[in-house]
Every structure is written in C-alpha cells, then in structure tokens.
Structures
1.
Amino acid sequence: MKKLILIIIFAAFLFLAGCDKVENPQFHVDETSCNECGRCTQVCPLDAIEYGENGKAVIDQTKCNQCGKCITICPQDAIY
Amino acid sequence: MRKTFIISLILAFWIAQSAALTNWAQFSLNYFTTDAENGIDIVTGASQDADHINTKGKFGAQYRHEISGNLNERISFDVRNNAFFSEKSHELRNSYLYNEIKAKLTYRFQNTYCKVQLNNRYYSPDKTNYLNLSGVEYDTQQQMVNNAIVDFQQDFGKFGFNLFGSFRDLEYKYAVPEDDDDRDHDDEDEYEAKSAADYDLYSLGMLSYRFNDRFSIFARGCYKDDLNDSSELNQNELGGGMEYANRFDFQNALSAEISYYHLDSKVIDEVFTHNIYSEIRYTKRFYFPLTGFISVKNRSVFDAEKSEFLRVSTLLRAHLKFSYLTENLLDSYLLAGGKYNPENNGSLVFGEFNQFLTHNIYLTGGAKLAFDLYSQYSGKLEFYLSPLKSIWLKTEYTDFTKRFGQNIISLGSTLIF
C-alpha cells in the first residue's frame, strides 16, 4: 500500500514536471528552506509577503506581480 | 497602531522578567559600496532616485536579539527583534531605517497546541521606497505593518484539527496634490501627505486523518478577506491531499505530499483555478561526515479551457556536505548544492567552506551563481572568544547580472547568554 502511494505521487510529479508552463508563473516559498529572516517582507514593493501558520513566509498571490525582488534577496534561496 | 507595538514590547519584557531566559544577540557595523548609476530599474529593491544611489560608501548598523524561554512545562515564549539602519538608500532594503519585532507565546500540552503571535515592522517614515498598492491611485510609502496571529491545533485520536487566523494592518502615507481638481497637475503643484491603512484577514481550517505514523490525508480551506471596501483581493481556497513521511533508518528518510486545491479569486488569472501541488524529499546520510538531501516540488494547474496541465513552478534542490576536523569547537566542512527553478529563472549553484585555522579562528567562504539574476561571493573570518562569544569580519560582493555591483563589509559580534 505504502509503495503504491509513493509510486502514485512520484508518477504524478513526473507527469506534472513534464508539462508546459503557464504564461505568467507564480512565486512560492519553499517552507523547508525558509528561515523566517524576513528579508523578503522588507523588500517586497507590493506588501505581498507575510508570515503564515508555521512562521514561514507566504506570498499573497492576489498582490504579487512577480517582480522577482524576493527571489534575489532570499539568503536561503527559498523562493521558487 | 503604535499602541500595539508598545503593548507587544511591554508584554515581551513582562514575560522576559518571569522566566529563565536564553539570549542570542548579534551586532554589526556595515559599510556599503556600490557602482550603481542613475536610472537602473532593478530587481533588487534599489531606489530609482539618483540622489539616493551614489557610488560613495555609506555606513550602516544592524542589531538582532532573540530571547526564548519557558514560563512552565507547557508555556514557552520567543521574542525576536531585528533593527537595521543605513546612512543612505540600500539596494537590498526598502527603507533606511527598519525595525521588526516578533513576540510569540506557545502552549503545548499532550494533544493541544496553541500559539499567539504579534509582529510589528516599523519603517523610516519618509525615506522608504514607494509601494504599489492595488486599488490605491497614488504612490504610497509604508510606515508600519502590524500582524496578529492565532494558531490552534488539537488531535482527537487519529483526527487532527487546525484553526489559524492572521490579521494584518499596513499603515502607509500617500501624497496628493493640495489643489486636487480636474485639471492636469504639474511639478509645481504642492502635495500634502495623507495617512491611510490597508487591512487583510487570513484564516485557515484544516482537518486531517492519520492512518498510521507515516501516512495521513487532509482537507483544508483558506479564506482571505480584503477588509477594504472594494473586496477585490478576496480569495478562497478549498482542497485536500495526502502526506507520507518515513524515516527508514538513521541514514535514510523520505517524505512526500500531493494535494489539490480549488482557487477562487477576482484578480488571479482563471488558469490558476485548479491547482496541484506535489513534493518528494529524500534525505541521505551516506556515512558520518557526508550528508545530503534531494528535494523536488512542483506546482501545476489544470487549464479547464484547454484541458491540459501546466507547470506553475518547479523546484529541484540538492545539497551535499562533507565535514572534517570535527574535534574542534565547530566542524570544518565543504558544502555544495544547487537549485533548479526553470519557470522563474531562479536556478543557481553554490559552494561554501568553513575551515578551522588556529586557536578558535575560522574562515568561511562561499560563492553563489544565479545564472539569470546575480552572482555573489562572500568571505568571513570569525574568532571565538568562548563557545558562546565571537567576533567576526565579513565581506559580501554581489554582481547583479553585470549591471551593477554592491559590496558590504561588516564587523560584528555574536553573543549567547
């Protein structure tokens, strides 16, 4: 059962990773890498980043315009 | 809202008086130089005001302090403050002056977890880069952000329940012409600054069921309420998925997740309505000095109009670390890794080393090459007076896609008491 679940997840991942990309990609935060330093919240020109339920940065997609400042500033390279 | 800031400070100090504390403090003096010139509309936060970007050096300082402790066996707290100042506009910050305080109180007992947190970010009132707030016609400058968070988690046997709420208040200023009639304004118009606030409420509810220690399923709903009149930025998310986590042995661990959520928003493109998130992370400890992990994440959408799946963002990250000279205060190590993120041009490779020199002196160096964005090189010399006290000298040079470079030299001290 466990192996089956893992195979399903892995297959789904491979399938999705092989698709075309959307016209305007979004930025998201890799929560396992984020160290809550807050640099991205300071540099965002749209005030689109705040802390989520586990203390890690979260990007509010309704405000973000994909300017890319946060991806450059993040010392953990946690934004993708 | 300054009251919130003062109340959180008083609360923090009251808590700090009542318990055994662990303090971590770091102070540094910084000197910045840049070869940036006029008119660079950059991706790094540089002001576009030529007066504020000059090639002369400028000084700055940063002070970080973290206090943590336990009031009793169930209640713990954590207070963090980060103050930053620079003489002139800094290419990697929005403001000359910045202070952030985060105060968190946590209750944990058996199957119950509760967290209350207050955050405050204060910016220099008149010297902050302009914001572009949705729905606000005029240029705005952020003054302060207040954020109150409540998080509650409860397990009932195999069921888990989570409620989260976050209220945000952005205080900002905007300039409007004093003579605000229908005619065209010119540079000679006098402007007056007005104050305003922008509010947001984020809430989340999640229910999970754990089949065993490794496998669980969950359903979750998120709602964002843009508390302003327009409600343009409201957002609804509803979905669910499954998680797997297994530590096979001391050397191998695997975790995976796949989830779907339906997004409903007026301002986000319709293509993002059906979202799929998948993640696999494998950690491998080869033998003691050599460790590493590989992690892949993918966010995709299903375009219902074209009946096809599309990638939103993919992340592949791999790290490998080799430790040696482990008998010293700190391990010496070599670290190398990379990140692959084709959709957002965020791919990079990096390398880092930490080398014990002599008498508790360490040399750290690193290079990071983000192909489409920047390259960064850093070096740090640190002397440990004791295991809990150190002084250091650091330099960091960043080349932003060969358009301009910035160097920061820092002299600092880190203290734990």
2.
Amino acid sequence: MKNVIVFLIVYATLIFATVFGLSLLGEERIDVYAALFAVEFFITSEITSPFTPTEHHKIKILGMIMMVLFIGIVVERIIDILR
Amino acid sequence: MSSERRTEDRQTLASTDRRALVGVFLVTVGGIVQILSYLMGIVPMLAFGLGSFLIGIMILFLPESGSIADSVATNSVLPFLLNIEYLLEDLDLDEKGIYIPVSGLGVSPKVFVPLTSATKTPSLELTPTRKIFVTVGKNPEDIGVLLDAPGSGILTLLERSLHTDLAKVQLKDLRTSINSGFKALGIAKVISLEHEGDIVRIEMEFRGLTDLETKLRELAPRLSALVGTPIVSAVAASVSKTTGKYVRVKVEALDLPNGKISMTLQLRDQAGDIAK
C-alpha cells in the first residue's frame, strides 16, 4: 500500500480515536482537540514516511500550517495563564 | 504532447476524481457538522467536524503517485536498459530479437538480435555463453548480439513463486501458470492466450511496472521494438520455454487508458528461418 494512503488511514484513525476518547473524558475545550490533531499529524507523517518528493513537499506545507495552529494554541494558553 | 502522455493524464484524472469525491464529501460533512455543533455548543461534535474537514482537505491536497519502491526500482533499472538501447543503435540493428528456448527452473531464455534478415538462426548451445557478440554461421552476416532477456528476472521470480519449470508446462496451461505467477508478483493478468499454427496471441492487463513500461517505450523505442519491454520479454521468454521453440515478438501494443498490453508472438523450430 502506498505510504500516503497509510498516512491518511492512520491519521483518520488517530483523529477519530482522539475525538472518541476526549469526549468520553468530558473534554469541552476545542483547542485541546485541535492541538492533539496537530501533534498526531507530525507523529503520523514521521511513522509513515518516506514519501515521494511531491508528497513530501505537500506534507511539509501541511506541517507548517499545523505548526502555526499548534503554536497559536500554545501561545493563547500561555497568555491565559499569565493574565 | 504524445498520445501516451495524454492517456496517462486521463488515467490519473479518473483516479483523482474518485479521491476528489471522497475529499469533497468529508469537507462538506465536516463543515456542516462544525457549523451546526458550534451553534448548538456541542464541542465533541465540533471536534468531529474539524477532524472530518482536516482529513477531507488532506485527501484533496495530497497527490496520488506511485509507490516509492516502484519509483526507485524503475529509476535504477532504466540506465542499464538504456545502455542496451544505445548499443543496438550504435550497431544499427533493425531485426527483431529471437528468444532461444531453454529448460530448467529459474533459467531464462536469452535473446539473439541478428545483424541482418539473412542471419542464421542461433543454435541452442549458444545460451550458456557469456559473450555479447556471437557468430552463428560461416557467412559474414551470421553474427549478432546475444542478450539476457529484459524480462529474465521476472521470469525467474515467476518460476520460483510457482515452484515450476515452465519448460515442463503445456502451452494450454501456460495462461493459468503465468496468471498465478504474475498475480503473486502483482504485475499483470493474462486476459487471453490464443495459439493458432505458429502464432500465439496474448492480451494482458497490467497492474504493476506501469511507469517502467511507459518510460521505456519513450526512451528506448529500439529496445522495446526489437527485444521487448520487461513484461513483454518475460511473456515471450515463458512461451519460448513452454513450447521449446524459438520465439520472436512480431507485434506488441500498449493500451495505456485500459491498462492492456497485446502481443503477437511467432514460433519457429530450429530448422525454420525465423529472421526472414
């Protein structure tokens, strides 16, 4: 099976497992879900690599977006704590 | 733009359409779920919508391409096959190659490319030689190039996966044998195999090595036409082994949109003058 397909399947499984698990724990903050989605993205892309050069380039772009999202959530949380 | 490139684009487009449908579905469902759950204030549902949306976006954004192992294998083998192409070009050889029958598990027929149409048919004893330039008769034109068949590796793998020497298989059973072997290797499927006199017509649906087969036809047209691409060569070598006859690839055509290869092979006994 192509690595990019494995990546999509593993990532989808992790995302839905996270939603299921956190909702069972009664988590009500959307930023917790989003931060975990970003972390899972990096874990999945590492364990399912290598990708072809085109796939690698596009995953890098998605990675940057995820990184910005993750940093945004962390910074917001730090600001909340400092207030 | 060549017709092969256009058909390849069409095939990619059809495959992309299926992915696009799944991607658009997930993005739409994710978007709707996110809006509704936001309005209703249900966070787990909002996260579910966000997850669907993200996966949909990734399906749409990530391209579908061949596996990295296939790509590495193709790019590794291509320069060696191009060297044979340049050799055939340098020697200005235009005659079709002749597969010399052999027997034994994992032993593949060699292919002899004659200098002229008047060149004698090579003898069976020629196969074990490691020489490239060989003489097959007393006349000056009785020389040619003796090569390992480009499909010899595939044929060896096929025989080893079947634990069968194809020289011991009947021609009527060859289709089943090739199908089982090619299925195990994930290469192709034989749709039809017809034998009529000294002609064998084969139609196949290929599943692997698409990149190599198309690239080779573009970059090495002489090798593809005279000797055959790896899949064609493996089939010609199989037929030669099974029938115990000399085989020449008379005609072969690639139908890329339908993923099919059709070929017509000509059989000859040693006494027959195949090159004419």
